[in-house]
Amino acid sequence: MPIQDKPRGLKAQRDAAQEVAVSALSFIAADGERLVRFLAETGLTPANLREAAGRRDFGAGVLAFVLNDEPLLLAFAAEKGLDPRHVAAAHEILSPPIDPDAIVRRPM
Question: Which Pfam family, an example, fits this chain (predicted)?
Fold first, then answer.
């Protein structure tokens, strides 16, 4: 379910956002150069990628990687038929809640 279908309810929104993140990871993995850069920038290895993918915040990290590279974002959005703003919205939905005690805070 694409995020632009405006799913109702928090669970449906999270599920749709997670689908966007899974699509983004597939898009990254489909190209060797993108995958190597993703692994290098995240500090992951092929050996621990599967374990990392099981973490709750993994999807937000994948989408952050895509959002930090405009040409990559535009290529991903075009291939999947998404508006780039929907990728940003999916990231926001999947991002961990703001911790008021954190030293570094997410921009609002």
Answer: DUF3572
pTM confidence score: 0.80
- Judge whether 24 and 66 are in contact, CB under 8 Å: yes
Q: Tell me, what's the pLDDT at 10?
A: 83
Helix (H) or strand (E) holding 84: helix 84-94
* Contact criterion met (CB below 8 Å) for 83 and 77: yes
End-to-end CA distance of the chain: 26
The DSSP secondary structure of 19-66, one letter per residue, reads HHHHHHHHHHHTSHHHHHHHHHHHT--HHHHHHHHTSTTHHHHHHHHH
